[in-house]
Every structure is written in C-alpha cells, then in structure tokens.
C-alpha cells in the first residue's frame, strides 16, 4: 500500500470517528468508566458489576477509599481491592 493510500484510509477512519462522536453531542452521553479487559475497553456504566459487552467481571473502577469491611476477594480487613493491596483480585 502506498503512503498516500495509507494516509487516505487514515483520513476516512478519522472522519468516521468524528461522525460517530458528533452524533453523541447533546445526547448527555458521558462515559465515566471503561472495561478493564484489554480486548474490550468499551465505555460502561460505573454501577455495572461486569462489562455488558464482554462480561468481564472486573469492570468497576478501583475504589479510592479503603474499605472498613473485609474484602470479598481476599478476606482481609481494610483491603480496598487495589493492585497494591489485594493480590487475590489479580490472579
């Protein structure tokens, strides 16, 4: 594929992306969370327990405060389920 053909295809893709985004302007669409699955990364509702697109169970963002109760994943007190705290989550 020549450089100019490659550039033309890129411009087509950019135009399609802008068209898709422009159609969402004014609709109230504002993703606040994305699926953590590397093969998905679709925008999701932050209240979802799993991604509706791929079913990935760890779709929720990591909490920013330490929990006062036991972690459901590892069972430790005060674990917030983050990578640095909860090793069970990432197995």
From TrEMBL:
This is Uncharacterized protein. It comes from Deinococcus budaensis.
């Amino acid at each position: 594929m020549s450089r100019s053909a490659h550039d033309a295809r890129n411009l087509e893709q950019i135009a399609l992306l802008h068209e898709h985004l422009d159609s969402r302007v004014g609709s109230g669409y504002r993703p606040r969370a994305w699926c953590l699955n590397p093969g998905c990364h679709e925008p999701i509702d932050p209240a979802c327990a799993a991604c509706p697109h791929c079913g990935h169970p760890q779709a929720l963002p990591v909490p920013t405060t330490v929990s006062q109760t036991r972690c459901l994943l590892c069972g430790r007190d005060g674990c917030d389920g983050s990578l640095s705290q909860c090793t069970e989550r990432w197995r």
